[in-house]
Amino acid sequence: MTWDIVIGIETHVQLTTKTKIFSGASTEFGLPANENACLVSLAYPGTLPVLNKEAVMKAIKFGLAVDAQIAEYSVFARKNYFYPDLPKGYQISQFELPVVNHGHLEINNEGVNKKIRILRAHLEEDAGKSVHGIMDNKTGIDLNRAGTPLLEIVTEPDMSSAKEAIAYAKKLHNLVQWIGICDGNMQEGSFRCDVNVSVKPRGSDKLGTRREIKNLNSFRYMEQAINYEVSWQIEQIEDGHDIIQSTVLFNPDSGETKAMRSKEEANDYRYFPDPDLLPLKISQKDIDLIRDSLGELPEECLKKLTVDFKLNEADASIIVSDKKTYEFYQSLVASGLDAKITANWIVGNLFAKLNDHELSIDDCPIAQEQFILLIKRIMDQTISNNAGKKIFDLLWEDPDKNVDTLIDTLGLKQVSDVSAILPMIDEIIQNNPEMVEQFKSGKDKAFNALVGQVMKISKGKANPGQVSELLKEKLTKS
Amino acid sequence: MKDLSLNELNQGLKNKDFSSVELTQYYLNQIKDLNTEINAFITIDEEKSIQQAQQADQLISQNHISELTGIPIAQKDIFCASSWKTTCGSKMLDNFYAPYDSMVVDLFNKCGAINLGKTNMDEFAMGSSNETSYFGAVKNPWNIDFVPGGSSGGSAAAVASGMAPAATATDTGGSIRQPASLCNLTGLKPTYGLVSRFGMIAFASSLDQAGPMAKTAEDCALMLNVMADFDERDSTSIKRDKENYTQSLNASLQGKTIGIPKEFFNDELNDDVKIILEKVMQAYQSLGVNIKEISLPNSQLSIPVYYVIAPAEASSNLSRYDGVKFGYRASNYKDLEEMYLKTREEGFGDEVKRRILVGTYVLSAGYYDAYYLKAQKIRRLIADDFTKAFTECDLILAPSSPSTAFKIGDKTEDPVAMYMQDMYTISTNLAGLPAISAPAGFINKMPIGFQLIGNYFEEAKILNFTHQYQSISDWHKYSPGGVL
Amino acid sequence: MALTDKDIKKLSHLAKINISSDDEMIVLKKLDGIMKLIDTMQKIDTTDVQPMSHALDIYQTLRDDVVTEKNQKEKFLQLGPESNEDYFIVPRVVE
């Protein structure tokens, strides 16, 4: 039997606010335990929540970015359960009336576009952390994170492979950083995915029972976890077992998913509207203000790159995969550089190098004006593309170097002078009669070989475009 | 000093007839004499109170004196007061020293009033007799075999017995008005949102409201002038211009209308109470007020609705008492689950546990619509009844309590009978309306009050009507031990 | 509908309040009485009535995103039933 895979994703996005969602305590990450645990974070008797404006703005911003409906009224509810890192014994979260409804995100998986529907996005507070292993048989409770604002983004079960799930997660990860609502730091837990996976016989209308893989904080683990989970579920069903709805954890060491110890009873969260908070009303005026501040979204930028700048989809996608890269690219093109050459250089060279060194564009050692100069010198044919790469490597090693000085000292200036190139062409034609014959009998390979020979005797300095032009002229004439 | 009003105490301090330290010491001595028997206070801290009085005297000597500067006020032990033990009447918080001030305490501190001590109360304000307190029942100063009412029984007994000139209290379903009625005091529950709930330990958040308890409407007005203030730390606090509640106390009532809800004045109402309330009506008529029958058709449902909503909110509000961050933790447990189970079993009293269980039940899967949602809908109907009624009258007159105080122990075994104590007060909490209870007379030497309910933010009108009644009646001047 | 001892066990579990087997019947009886009182509201037709969560029709105010709280870790940890210099301590949490 063949199987359909059905995947839905819930993502917890930590919003980049200075303070917690319901109190004026700092959200700074990485402080010693409990330094950000204020009266409200600790649920002291008599304390009350007051909603952070910035968290609301950021939720609206997200809603607009995924073309969703922003609810005029939304309501905060209490989700009741006991856990030591949940100080109030309930989590404040939007339940029946979330702030964002019905948006979508378009993903591209191996060249195929697909619309992933976003069911809802709601504001809620994060829990604290339980720290194990500090004492035998004891757990330490750190409430620094308690009350950090989260936007939980829930998709419809629209993804049908691990690859699509990753494409969605990456796209979302890019978007939330692009619009400035999340720092995207997955190691610090700023972006965490719960993935719901089920399988059903191909074409069946009936969804299978799902299992939820909790707290995936790397795309690699997500892919491994989904693949493992899918084959496990298929195996179970094929062996005649039912899938039991459950929450599972992924163990990166074993590469396996495993159901969490099942509670004696199903959770009964007893949601009800939080009487300490009033309905949140969002006016059209607020929405318009936020819309004005939204700026260009990745989707629009992608269109601009492929339509206006004529970049291919792959290069364009890489450039918009991150707002800083896009802005960097934009500023380069604005300084007069050729759109395509610049794209090739960013995607082919700069990115390769950054990835090798696990650096982000912010950490690029090469100064922007030197990078611009380098591409300019290629555009005006002072140097060849290959010479450019050599210079790029040297600049990477020593950012204090200057492109023009390097061209001079290394003698990389390419020969574009017809009078200098023609004698070399003549020499090669004379010395390689067989290749010339082969070319004339229709073998294009031979032509490339001849160009290569000319480049070789020019010690790489001849302008390859010009060599090929002149050579063709010569060969077709004679 | 015993029978002086807040205004007279203010005059005395201004004229240097006595100092704040002398005044505070006088009340502290009263407490020493009487509290062992009455049990109105959970915590007294002479040193702190006297220190505050010294600071007040400094202010007064520099002529920085406002209406309550230097006057000792008893604080219900539901209000967090920095470095004071704040128990909410529970073993759960037996050793809890609040690390911060509630808005109410802060406002009194800021105007130079003295925190005289923390008054006893039903545990987490759940009760109508002050018998659910972990710190023991409070006795009614009019007869110590009787309850003072609850949950603000400590505040009521403290003022009625002369241990404090006035006190703060809170009212979720009648907890200011019912004890005021049973102890011959004037107690006002303001409009929901008028007084900040910040630092007031929550029972049922959408119903809880703090207010004053004193001997007269005038004293309540002075207290409310301090307590009513917008607080951005409470999302349900209402931003509006400050009112001076003493300003219109003497306004004429000529031509005004009091509505009498026929549903409250039916055969179920105790005959003696009915007679007393009819006398109140006559007094108002003598002041030129028209009496008009009105209808609150859904008011009968207040008790069932309240006993869904209040326990539901309480079950969630009280989840924070889990033995992790503060308060009581059981001493013997084998794991986390048992720590929770035992901490909450041992830390809460029976009534609190009952309400948490009821609240848990009405919110649980499969029951939410039938109970919680249903109750929220009837709550709307109850509120709508009032809106309609106030198109026909200025204020509504109602009983405060179904009877005078009952004997300690009489209703402890029957929670439902106890819940009936609040049958006339609960509907205003559900609607969020302001209401007062003021002395109306005595039945078998025990006091009973009448209730006036107003439209939203009509505290000034309520106080005006009450003050006018008190200017032609003497009931509020009686104190325990006097001749009846 | 009448409560059962099974309901009491479930409520005890959800509310994390231990109820000893001696008390179970007493609790059941009292809760049942309260539920009977509550059930008197079922007779009212509430079709098309909007539920009321708050007394006043007002909306949530928003707070500016400004840090107002300072570190009081030491004080708060001391108020905890069990703590060390960094954490509130509880029996081991099993996932």
Describe what this molecule looks like in 3D:
The complex is a heterotrimer of chains A (478), B (484) and C (95). Chain A has 15 helices and 17 strands. Chain A folds into 2 domains: 3-286, no CATH class; 418-477, Arc Repressor Mutant, subunit A (Orthogonal Bundle). In chain A, α5 (298-308) crosses α6. Chain A has a 9-stranded mixed sheet with strand order 3-7-8-11-1-12-13-14-15. Chain A is α+β, with helices and mostly antiparallel strands. The longest helix of chain A has 20 residues, at 219-238. Chain B has a domain at 6-253 and 459-477: Amidase signature (AS) domain (Amidase signature (AS) enzymes), CATH 3.90.1300.10. In chain B, 37% of the residues lie in helices and 13% in strands. In chain B, the strands form 2 sheets. An 8-stranded mixed sheet of chain B has the order 4-6-5-10-11-9-7-8. In chain B, strands 1-3-2 form a 3-stranded mixed sheet. In chain B, α4 links the parallel β2 (72-76) and β3 (114-119). In chain B, α2 runs antiparallel to α3 (46-61). The longest helix of chain B has 21 residues, at 369-389. The two termini of chain B are 21 Å apart. The radius of gyration of chain C is 22 Å and the shape is flat. The model of chain C has no long low-confidence stretch (mean pLDDT 93). Chain C has helices spanning 5-15, 21-39, 73-79; strands at residues 62-63, 88-91. By secondary structure, chain C is mainly α. Chains in contact: A-B, A-C, B-C. At the B-C interface, α9, α10, α11, α12 and α13 of B face α1, α2, α3 and β2 of C.
